[in-house]
UniProtKB/TrEMBL annotation:
GO biological process: regulation of DNA-templated transcription
Source domain of life: Bacteria
Keyword terms: DNA-binding
Protein name: TetR family transcriptional regulator
DNA-binding region: 30-49
Signal sequence residues: none
Residue span, HTH tetR-type domain: 7-67
GO terms for MF: DNA binding
Pfam families hit by this protein: TetR_C_31 (PF17940), TetR_N (PF00440)
Length: 195
């Protein structure tokens, strides 16, 4: 019997892993549960991912891409070069504009599927116990800082990312709602203090 060529199998396995984690948490993840969810032979999961940590790394990397892509595609964040962006971000209109855009993006993120956000943070926080995930978790921070540094200095960009992470965690852990006005005010304070 000829082996069927399936160029998207690896992607389907990652998608299946994300589905399993969303439904049952990381504790429910196994090669067997992922194979069943992806409707592939068990050997396919172990062929593409030799360990569960490898599969978790791929899943976390996929999640990282979502919000970073949103930052990357924001015209307001991409506007201007680094020097011009830093000058704009430190003035009153610049700090308001940057804080407004980041608040808008977070609001848009929270307006989506809550389970998707919880999934992303579950994977992100799994890096506390799984050293293989730490470099991938750090990639998100570094890429977000790099993107925000187009509009402000790197130290301020890092503080903005830390605040956004903190706001997200508080909303998720407390089961509350995203407070756009508070978030915008805090982001604006960080940007205004940056320059």
């Amino acid at each position: 019997m000829a082996r069927r060529y399936d160029p998207h199998r690896r992607t389907r396995i990652i998608d299946a892993a994300l589905s399993v984690i969303a439904a049952d948490g990381i504790a429910g993840l196994s090669h067997r549960t992922v194979a069943a969810e992806a409707d592939v032979p068990l050997g396919s999961t172990t062929y593409h991912f030799g360990s569960l940590d490898e599969l978790l790394v791929a899943a976390l990397r996929r999640c990282n891409e979502n919000f970073v892509r949103t930052l990357r595609e924001s015209e307001a964040l991409a506007a201007g070069g680094e020097a011009e962006g830093a000058a704009r971000a430190t003035g009153p209109a610049g700090s308001a504009g940057l804080a407004d855009e980041l608040t808008r993006l977070l609001g848009q993120w929270f307006a989506g599927e809550r389970g998707a956000i919880e999934l992303e943070y579950e994977l992100y926080l799994a890096a506390l116990r799984r050293p293989a995930l730490r470099p991938v978790a750090a990639e998100w921070t570094e890429e977000a800082v790099e993107l925000l540094s187009r509009r402000t200095d790197p130290g301020t960009a890092r503080a903005l990312v830390a605040l956004m992470d903190g706001v997200c965690l508080q909303v998720l852990l407390a089961g509350g709602t995203f407070d756009a006005a508070y978030t915008r005010e805090m982001l604006a304070r960080i940007v205004a203090g940056g320059g």
